Amino acid sequence: MTTIDTAAARARLLEIIREKAIVHGRVTLSSGKEADYYVDLRRISLDGEAAPLVGIVMRELTKDLTYAAVGGLTLGADPVATSMLHAAAASGDRLDAFVVRKAGKAHGLQQRIEGPSIEGRRVLVVEDTTTTGASPLAAVEAAREDGAEVVAVATIADRATGAGERISAEAGVEYRYAFSLEELGLA
């Protein structure tokens, strides 16, 4: 088992996010809100150097929590969850991942949640960046409907737009983020 320098991983991930993921200019977010910048974390969570760092940083962020699976609403959560799964395996630990569909399938097993069963398990809901909290809230609801106990919601970057407060109030779970707007140089 290799010892990982989590502080160095966090510093490098922040550097890569600043270099590759922050796009300046007027954009409309998935929430419908407008912003003067866009944090495109799929450029990070799907990047060969950055993705492993995402797993390390997100596991470090949630190391005091006990959970057996990690996932969230497709598409933002998918690479975050798989990065964490791989980081766990590299550390000699076991962590499953799951994907929450935006709507249940009308064919096959008609599942809303894909992957190993989360029924009766403690799970962490993840996201790449959070604005309104709608995506993680939908994932929390789906996971609970599937019989899971959601321990928290964790995101790589928080846009400081009230999502954390909304998630805590509506879902009754703790909200955590790895990087603030200030750390990203956007506040």
Automatic annotation (TrEMBL):
E.C. code: 2.4.2.10
UniProt pathway annotation: Pyrimidine metabolism; UMP biosynthesis via de novo pathway; UMP from orotate: step 1/2
Residue ranges occupied by any Phosphoribosyltransferase domain in the UniProt entry: 98-166
One of the Pfam families matching this protein, by short name: Pribosyltran
Cofactor(s) the protein needs: Mg(2+)
Signal peptide (residue range): none
Keyword Transferase listed: yes
Keyword Glycosyltransferase recorded: yes
PANTHER family documented for this protein: OROTATE PHOSPHORIBOSYLTRANSFERASE, URIDINE 5'-MONOPHOSPHATE SYNTHASE
Family as reported in the entry's similarity comment: Belongs to the purine/pyrimidine phosphoribosyltransferase family. PyrE subfamily.
Subunit structure: Homodimer.
Record-given protein name: Orotate phosphoribosyltransferase
Organism the protein comes from: Terrabacter aeriphilus
Gene name of the encoded protein: pyrE
